[in-house]
Amino acid sequence: MEVRELHGRPSSPAEAEAIQDRLRPMLELGVPGPVEPRTVAGLDVAYAGDGGGAGTRLAAAVVVLDGTSLEVVEESAAVGTAAFPYVPGLFAFRELPTLLDALRALKTVPDLLVCDGFGVAHPRRFGLACHLGVLTGLPTIGVGKTAFIGAYEEPGPRRGDASPLLDGGEVVGRVLRTRDGVKPVFVSVGHRTDLDTACRNVLDLTPEYRLPETTRRADRLSREALAG
DNA sequence: GCGACAG
DNA sequence: ATCTTGTCGC
């Protein structure tokens, strides 16, 4: 599939923040998302050795599943190097280049991208899921495993229980329990979808485990690609 | 000023 | 993210 080239690689945090600020107005928020996506892609990255600085070897993976059966439709992986050091808030710049390589090699154009991390639940409202949404033009959501920004109340104990993730006065995401009695995940919209649909999609993708099947598949593929 | 801080 | 043993539970 095609990916837009809207910026080069930042060489400083200030430059990276400027790119986020420039792309943020391109986001389409508050529009209805794909309720029954035909295909859903999961993205993830695995690191070799110390995952802190720039230059460390990594592998990015994209796995496309049938939105109904959750069967694998297509897989793509790419190896590369961390393009930026790990800085909270600028996380996307680390793995974006390799992630985009994997996406470009994809024949399928997914109806939805499920990203590891956050969308608008971000200090400047432009997390990895937003970034990938603007570059691909596709609906995207972010599913984080741990809290980043925002305050929330512990959701109920059952699958489907949720509570709003609040930053300042605004709802930036939702803390969603995907399975009975397990730690909740943090869902936020990235591009061209709404929070209700995003959470609906995440529940549809978690029939058995805490994390979306897309994320689990991509995680496994990225580790394999890294190993060789 | 001091912590906290997606992966 | 990654480094890592044992351990509790289905």
Features:
hydrolase, archaeoglobus fulgidus dsm 4304 fold, DNA-binding, 228 residues, deoxyribonuclease V activity, eight-stranded mixed beta sheet, alpha+beta, RNA endonuclease activity producing 5'-phosphomonoesters, hydrolytic mechanism
- How many beta strands in the DSSP annotation? 8
Strand content: 25-35%
CATH superfamily: archaeoglobus fulgidus dsm 4304 superfamily
Q: Report how far the terminal alpha carbons are from each other.
A: 24 Å
Helix content: 25-40%
Strands of the biggest beta sheet: in what spatial order? 3-2-1-4-5-8-7-6
Specify Rg, calculated over alpha carbons. Answer: 16 Å
CATH level-two architecture? 2-Layer Sandwich
Rounded mean pLDDT is 96
Q: Number of folding domains? A: 1
The largest sheet is: 8 strands, mixed
CATH topology name, in short, is: archaeoglobus fulgidus dsm 4304 fold
**Strand-pairing-aware structural class:** alpha+beta
N-to-C series of helices and strands: HEEEHEHEEEEHH
The count of helical stretches stands at 5
Q: Regions with pLDDT < 50 over 5+ consecutive residues?
A: none
Shape: globular
User: What is the CATH class designation?
Assistant: Alpha Beta
